[in-house]
Amino acid sequence: MKSSMQGQVSPSSDAGDNILRQQGSGGLWDSVKKAAFIIGSGIFFLAAFLNSVTWHLQRFWGASGDFWQTQWTKIHHLFGGNEWALFFVGTMIVPTASFWLFNALLMVADSTGKPSFITRYRIQVDKNNPVDPEKLRQAVKTVLFNQVFLSMPMVWLAFLVMKWRGDPCGPELPTFHWLLAEMAICGLLEEVLFYYSHRLFHHPAIYKHIHKKHHEWTAPIGVVSLYAHPVEHVLSNMLPALIGPVLLGSHLATTSMWFTIALLVTTVSHCGYHLPLLPSPEFHDFHHLKFNQCYGVLGVLDRLHGTDAVFKQTKAYERHVLLLSLTPLTESIPDTPKKLQ
Question: Which of 32, 181, 237, 314 has CA atoms 20 to 30 A from the CA of 175?
């Protein structure tokens, strides 16, 4: 569900407009054609290794599979056959609660500068220190609007389609290896759809009307992941996340896990802190800073299309790793000192 997902406009935003006008259409048609390579490679990999992966993961699942099936059976009986209520809890309540719990902690850090074990890992050290409270309130209101009035109806439509196709709330859980395979496919589809929809929203004719809202934050915070124009929220935040479970006819357990992970990952990508043991947010943080780099989620299509070329020449690229120590990367890999004029 990407990544896809604030008050005054920064002067850098206008500079971004100028950059975008110079870019033009940016060879989107060539990008679309090259996407076939990514999709084809993913399908080939899954087909080639499915049997081996199935055998190993099924052994890993083992006895714990019975435990999770028992818990699901209890939940299924608790809802007494009300599949829409069950689907709503799994796809809206659980992921949304996870999103706001995580963001509540981040917003405390953004607003107060405490706890220091978070704020010392700030990427753009001189930004959001503390965050503008009015901009934060505006962001929260917009995100709540998007979730209630856009995400909920789309989840309802997804339920109708998935119910028409099969049984998304069936009494039997998917096998663990199939759950992982579906998660991988969902991630691949999200990468493709988010990358190209995101690049489309950066087209000069569209950007100022829709995507500029999201880029009001040149130094993003977690909740900004869903701060977007309604059109962008539907097409670039929700659709890439929904398309996988709908096409695959995924079980609710898979869909709920996928939505939750997608929301938490996009929050990390926007949070503004490079925290230990969490995925690196340097890639997307750089996109908010420079506008015309790093459009994707995983970075696969950016590498393919060269839209990470500038990023790879920066200190941010050197810091784009999993942090395994307690030393902030701004300290271990400091910015190059500016030359005196």
Answer: 237
CB 214 within 8 A of CB 9: no
3-state class (DSSP) for residue 27: coil
- CA 330/CA 316 separation, integer angstroms: 9
Helical H segments across 120-169, by residue range? 133-146, 152-165
- Token pair for 301: 């299509």
Supply the pLDDT for residue 38. 56
DSSP state of 278: S
What stretches of 24-170 show up as alpha helix (H) in DSSP? 28-61, 64-78, 83-88, 94-112, 116-119, 133-146, 152-165
| Tokens of residue 233, six digits | 């929220």
Mind listing the pLDDT tens digit for each residue in 153-193?
999 999 999 999 899 999 999 998 899 999 999 999 999 99
**Could you tell me if 323 and 280 are in contact, meaning their C-beta atoms sit under 8 angstroms apart?**
yes
Condensed to tens digits (0 to 9), the pLDDT of residues 39-94 reads 555 555 555 555 555 555 555 555 455 888 999 999 999 998 899 999 999 999 99
93-113 exposure pattern, b = at least 16 Cβ within 10 A, e = fewer: ebbbebbbebbeebbebbeeb
Burial level of 159, CB count in 10 A (0-12/13-18/19+)? buried
Distance CA 341, CA 333 (A): 24
Chain centre to alpha carbon of residue 77:
33
Q: Reduced to 3 states, what is the DSSP secondary structure of residue 316? A: helix
Cβ-contact 259, 267 below 8 angstroms:
no
pTM for the whole structure: 0.83
Q: Cβ neighbours of residue 295 under 8 Å, at least 6 residues apart?
A: 195, 198, 199, 202, 287, 301, 302, 307
* Nearest Cα residue to 324 out of 335, 332, 312: 332
Question: Does residue 35 contact residue 188 with C-beta atoms inside 8 Å?
Answer: no
Mean pLDDT rounded to a whole number for the chain: 86
